[in-house]
Each structure stands twice: as C-alpha cells, then as structure tokens.
Known about the structure:
This protein is of the alpha+beta class. It has helices spanning 2-19, 143-150, 160-163; strands at 26-29, 37-47, 58-67, 73-84, 89-97, 106-113, 121-133, 138-140.
Amino acid sequence: MRQHFRLCTLALVASFAANAEPPPAEHRVLEQDDAPVEIVEYTANYQRGSSSRYSREGIRHRVTYRNVGDRKIVALQFGLLSFNIFNEFQDRLGGYTIQDVAPGESLTGEWLASAIAESAFYTGVAYVSKVRFEDGEVWSADLDKVAKQVQEVEEEFSVESLRSDKGS
C-alpha cells in the first residue's frame, strides 16, 4: 500500500513538473537616441505550434514603433534577438517591413522566428537596425553600440552575431 502511495505521489509530482509553465519572458528595447524610429512597445513570446497549418511554433516578436523624424520612411528593419532561459543567444531575426511611415505615425508589426529549441526562449531584445527614407538614403544602427547593450543580457555576446547574414 505504501509503495502504491509513493508511486501515485511521484506520478502526480512528475505530471505537475511536465505541465509547469516557464517564467514570463523578458523584453528589452535597446536605447538608440539617434534612430529615426522609436520602438514604443515590444513583446516576444514562445508560441506553441498546432496541427493547424496557420499556427507554427516559434518566437513571436511584436513591435509598435513611431517615426520620430521629419522624413517619410518607406522601409525598415528591426533586429530581433532571442535568448534562452539561461540568457544564452539563440537566434537573430531581421524583422522587415516595406511600408510608408509618415513623420509622427505609429504602426505595429509582428514576426515569427523559427529557432532551434524555441521552447527554451526567455529573453527578447529589439532594436532598430535599418531605415530607408523616401529619397533613398539609408540609416543604419551602430552595431558596436548595439552589441555593448546586448552584453548586459549575455556577457559573451559578439558583434559578429549581428553582422552575419543569418536571419536577415
């Protein structure tokens, strides 16, 4: 009888552990005082896949942004970084949008990153990577400054992780 009770207790504890929810994800927006676009709000969460062809597994990044300059923007790219539960770098995604953004206008975009071990996701980091203006000029983030801020999440983070073609 005692053995049966122990087995039932162990099974119950294992069941709770298997169904435990991970801690809520952390979201960080990097400071970029010279960027022509401001990230107003950013969230990133692990999205479980389903049998539906419309729901893939991955990290869903959602960015609300505003054109803080006085020039019309025609395209932009966000750098969207994912780190696991131990704040180890997982993946980088270039969140592109080709859309007119008038001075002062705010918009929202969403991107889904399919990465290895998405379910271990914990920290998302967002920054403005590139902006193309109506006249063709392109503004680009200073990647050394970006990497320095990202090192607050993962001390060993390398600027080379931002310069690679992966995810862009």
